[in-house]
Amino acid sequence: MQKLLVAYKVDWLDQRWDEYTDEEYEAARLIVVHGMSENHIVGGPRFYTEYDLSNACPACGAGMRQTGAYMLDGAGPQTVRLGQFRAVDSYSEIIVDQPLAETLTRANLSGLSLRSVYAIQPDEVPDELIWKQLWASHTLPPLSPRSTGIDFDSACKTCRRGKLESTSPVRFAYRARDLEGSKDVNRMWEHFGEYVRWNGDLKTAVLWQPYFVVTPKVWRIFRDAGVTGFQWLPIRVVEE
Predict the structure, then answer these.
(1) Could you tell me how far CA 94 lies from the centroid of its own chain?
(2) Which pTM does this prediction carry?
(3) Taxonomically, which superkingdom (predicted)?
(4) Residue 208 CB neighbour total at 10 angstroms
(5) pLDDT tens digits for 106-134?
(6) Is residue 42 scored above 90 in pLDDT?
(7) Which helix (DSSP H) or strand (DSSP E) does residue 187 occupy?
(8) Pairing, β 93-96 against β 87-90
(9) Measured between alpha carbons, how far is 151 from 154 in angstroms, rounded to an integer?
(10) pLDDT by residue (tens digit) across 128-141?
């Protein structure tokens, strides 16, 4: 196939990823949740989501902390995905439908709380949705440098936390000692995303948030609910 694409001068995007069995997911210490473009929906700072910028990097915005409900673009074409998926991704934020939110609540997952979600209409009036945003209280320490598929040199030169780039397949690794105190639901310290727009003004910002990192218990809930549109990547635990 690749030879044919080259012969006919067709542009393509080459992506590769690892496939895992249910047994490998069940045995994982933690699993990174990566949203795919097929279930992405636009929202965040440009749509009046409020943030505390006191600890944000001035160069890339990494480290800003959301303080209010999550706001989606209610007029955008991607809003139809709220009726097509049980869960959607919005710049690495995860938004789930009401039945799934109730299931997650009943599971008593450590580190998890749920926040309200609104859709901002063209008249700038927010409509509250029955969907909920996942919120993690715990942030993991930085990844081990033994992670592969990650260009650590691409990180923001000011904070070394944001604007990280990756090439597939990505294999995330954590030091065993850094997982002490981890919860069922956690966030990464790093911010991935090649396209970042940040000049200090939330109204024009495009910012990717840290990935969620969860236990197999959470993966099992999403699997049993028939959730699609996400990659689930078990971490490697290394001794350093």
Answers:
(1) 7
(2) 0.91
(3) Bacteria
(4) 22
(5) 999 999 999 999 999 888 889 999 999 99
(6) yes
(7) strand 185-187
(8) antiparallel
(9) 6
(10) 999 999 999 999 99
- Cα separation of the two ends of the chain: 42
Q: What is the DSSP string of 65-131?
A: EE-S-EEEETTSGGGGGGGT-SEEEETTEEEE-HHHHHHHHHTT-TTEEEEEEEEE-TTS-EEEEEE
Q: Is the dihedral of CA 234, 20, 34, 60 positive or negative?
A: positive
Tokens of 211: 């990935």
In this structure, the number of other CB atoms found within 10 A of the CB of residue 192 comes to 21
Helices 216-224 and 98-106, axial angle in degrees (round to 10):
140
Which single residue is written with the structure tokens 């934020």?
Answer: 93
Using DSSP's 3-state secondary structure scheme, residue 147 falls into coil
| Cis ω for the linkage preceding 169 (within 30 of 0) | yes
Closest CA to 164 of 198, 206, 210: 210
